[in-house]
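Continuing from yesterday's entry. The apo prediction looked reasonable, so today I'm repeating it with coenzyme A included to see how the binding region is handled. Same sequence as before; SMILES copied from the compound registry.
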Amino acid sequence: MVVKLGGMRTIRELDEDELGELMRITEQAFPGMKVGGTAEREAILERLRRVQQGGFSHFYGVFEAAQMVGVMRNYDFTMKLHETRTLVGGVGGVAVDLRHKKERVAADMIAHFLRVYVDKGAALTALYPFRPDFYRRMGFGYGVKLNRYSFRPDALPTGRPRARVEYLTAADREAVRACYDRFMERTNGLLALLPHVLDNLFTDPAQHIVGYRRDGVLRGYLLFRFEPARGDNWLANNISLRSLVYDDPAALSALLSFLRTQADQVERIVYETQDDAFHYLLTDPRDGSGNLLAGLWHETNTQGAGIMYRVIDVPRLFAVLGDHNFGGVSAAVGLTLTDSFMPANAGRTVVDVDGGRASLRTGAAGVEIGMDIAEFSSLVVGTVDFARLYEYGLATIDDPGAVALVTQLFHAARPPWCLTHF
Ligand SMILES: CC(C)(COP(=O)(O)OP(=O)(O)OC[C@H]1O[C@@H](n2cnc3c(N)ncnc32)[C@H](O)[C@@H]1OP(=O)(O)O)[C@@H](O)C(=O)NCCC(=O)NCCS
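Holo prediction written out below.
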């Protein structure tokens, strides 16, 4: 379907034979990608074609007359948001032809992306920003930060008598999917694995996937690769650990024991995770930098802001969260939102919470709060508490005595994590 964006500009999903032009714009916008020769380009195109055929990823192009001037990818994700699985729109690969920057091509694309997911029935969207401020202005709020830990393998707990782990292969695809799915069920914010993401776990020979089985069932797995620890010594390696997925403490312990036994050959394990309590697991949590912070604080990890969330339909969001327990409270909260990029979300509604169950109505309320859609998006997915937003001047309340109540209402038992890169 071709949608007019104003002037000569239109946007539509791309055909397979237009992916080459998409790549041209993408390569020029991201010179750091450094695509090599024809063979590499052909391989990337083939991958894009397969991803497109998978049906969960949609490649869009913005056109001025017949010329493609911008591209993006949209993803139909299923997110576990608190208790509920729900459709969430993802966007990535936003790139604008160098000759057409600063002509609001990106703004038009993002607005279209948001509209598409309103039409598809989603309440929430997510993205990894190339620059957080660019998307914050468009109403996206920060997610949970990522920590990069770097620890010695022997700082991991010894664990119980050594449990066996094994290498997993494509034959274990279904078991990996099921294990991830149970982890997703226990946590907040995870996106269901798209088929091509699941397939890719097994295709890169440099990436190892190790699992722990109990009674024939895969109870946990981890992904890792070896990275040189220092340029001048090929024997010195680190492990770069990605995704530690497990059912229970016994499964985690088995996976950690495996990592610990690499101590003779591995200098450090570098683990990038949104888990900010991981240092409790380590006998020595220092990250090897030797940096002391503010007196006597040992650097344990560096951090980065990444994934951002945006609510696109407030009434639908509360419908999606119909089974969510909003802090067990009973209160009528007047919620006034600003949303300059998507004005349909702006305005006031009353969140009527009865024993933790929320519904929306109009009329009078016991307490009035207000904030921008970006902060509201962070608040409702559980990345930040209301009390903080209030202290920082990012949220208002008419009765400061009710800050604790509103904080409890929106507080999430688990902040949202995301293990999917897109
Ligand atoms: C980053 C990039 C996509 C930006 O594209 P662009 O088309 O130049 O950006 P735009 O012109 O649409 O700029 C955003 C516009 O949204 C507008 N905007 C932002 N928030 C707004 C809001 N709440 N309400 C109204 N307008 C808003 C901005 O004002 C800006 O318009 P202006 O320049 O008229 O002020 C492009 O430079 C690029 O391809 N860069 C390299 C690749 C890259 O980094 N991609 C991002 C990957 S996620």
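Comparison notes:
- The first helix runs from residue 19 to 29.
- The mean pLDDT is 96.
Will overlay with the apo model tomorrow.
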